[in-house]
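Researcher: Re-running this chain for the archive, since the previous output was lost when a drive failed. Same request as before.
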Amino acid sequence: GDANNTNDESKQIWTMTKIQLQNHKMNFIQGCAYQFSTDGSKLFIKVVPSTTSSAPPKEPVSTGPAIQQVKKGARKAPGRTYQDLLKNGYDEAKLRYYCTTEVLCIDMTTAVKGEEPTLVPQSKGGHLIQSLNSSPCGRYLLAQLTTKFSYSVPISRFGKDIVLWDLTNNQELKVASIPVNDEIPLSFDACSRHPRGYRFHPCGTGGEDDTTTTIMFVKATDGGDPANDPVDGERDALYCQTIDTDSFTLHEPTKFVGLEWRYSDLDFSESGMAIVEEYRWKDRMERKWILNADGTKLRMLWERSWEDRYNAPGEPLTRRGAKGQYFIVQPTPTSIYLSGAGASSVGDRPFLDVLDFGSEEVKTTRLWRCTAPVEGELDASKEVNGVLPTDRKDIYESLVCVLPDNDSIMISRESKTTPRNYYLSKLGDGGDEAEIQVTQFEHPQPDLLGVTKELVQYKRDDGVELTANLYLPANYDGTPLPTLFWAYPREFKDSKAAGQVKGSKHLFVSAHWASPIHWAAKGWCVFDNFALPVIGEGEAQPNDTFIEQIVSGATAAVEYAVSRGVCDKDRCAVGGHSYGSFMTAHLLSHTSLFSAGIGRSGAFNRTLTPMSFQSEDRSIWEARDTYITMSPLMHVKKMSEQERVGKMLLIHGEADENSGTHPMQSERYFAALKAFGIESKLVMLPHERHSYRARESILHMAYEQEAWLKSLEDK
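Model: Regenerated structure tokens:
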């Protein structure tokens, strides 16, 4: 569309042009079927090749034996438990049929004249295109094309060719050929030993001749295995390869920057300055470096634990630049903006800072922060101008963006009873007076009107601080209520970080389809997102004491709710999705706290996920006892012997694609519950994956859950 200015600069008239694709059908199988070139001059559309038959390949009676082989002397190739892998030649034929794609190109300067799109000649006949990346000048496309299949890893790790398409001269150049990526060690500090992360340098064009268009990629110097020694103190390195336009060849790669830890992210400013991030999983540490345009390290911005939310400095603010790329915003040549959640002991209070790195010491100045709540102690050093605010309100605000004038901001604002709306404001003094309300949304869920929310804090028996969101029904009369506890365990390496307050009690009370908050409208007490940290400090592994820690956390949650007088201890239920379902099974097996449990899309037998799961990066052969102990299937007999045996509702999507939560997990667990006569029910939702989507499935899920807990209401 075109935006035509009227006499009023605050208004624009937009026109649309309909583009005819003739008989072509867009192919959305591997993501969005259309994208603009970086400079906006072209629109690329992925389409089904015209030679593709109208019907998919017919399934044969038999494809013959499906054979996989590990040859003598092969490299080790551990892998997580993936679903939906290729199994035979028929699967390969189906994948080719649905994913083979051609690319059409539309010149946006002539599209309004009704000119038809043209085929990108390099795509003729079709390829299995994993991604397309446009160069800053718009002349080149960097395409990742699937070339080699595997029966042991998903499509993202299939073998591929990285090719460069010249849209001006209709030429193709192979940049790299990457084999099947099935040899990555299990450690979360591991990565592929092959080049990865191919992209264009967003500032890599030297003018109209495009002679300095540059491709960037990352390569592990330690073979991708953290057990190996780093090379010259580096585990990862970023490289640049420039394109010679005249000969359409690539110059030899040159190192851009080397990193002691594993590469995580790289962002540029339009000036060419960059910020690179590296991480070390084993102790949850991260670093950020400011780089000069040539890749030399100017200075380290910080080295910190990403688990520590209270002292998180925020992330560099980015904005779409002149050629469609996102760049770090620099208000001055030696400063950047940082925005963050602003976690604190009174809850999250988002902020905007400006960080100046031009002097010997990095200086950070707070420009804006969410209004402080009425109650709670504040730290003046983290407030705007270092001054404690006097105007305090129980609301929650977050930064949406900084406008191009670098003086105006858009924020969102909400409270427990007022839905989120958007406002334009000014930085500095006088922001409130200049504020403009942009939206005025009404309450989207009237059935939740009157439901109250409170962010509560309590401790488990070892002193670790815990939090939860406590919801009570409208017109609550102070009597103990049936209570639903809902959670998802998290692993930590630092007990202090595990005890930090998360979220804000001033967020608008609303509920999505999977939320337990709906029960508050039915007259229940809801203890949502109650903290269940699983901590392993130093050399200790969190999962070695998983059961003890979640039992301690759940016991503390129930005891707190009962002590508040809001929870009837004889009418408690617990539930969760995925890892929360796994947690639910353990709590029913190892405690008598709950009369009922709801487990959606969970895993219950860790021997079926032998090569790591969740945040566990040891294999079953390295931590046999942990895997067996952490399998709820192994504790069904103990569950049947509890003083109060909780009944268990299992819900699972029949097409669950998530690693580790194959539908068989719920089927086998239900069979074990049935064997011991434990009241239980298994509901398999047709065609659903790990997260449910169909209206029929979601409504049926709601029906089953409500019926399952009805007995607790009737007591």
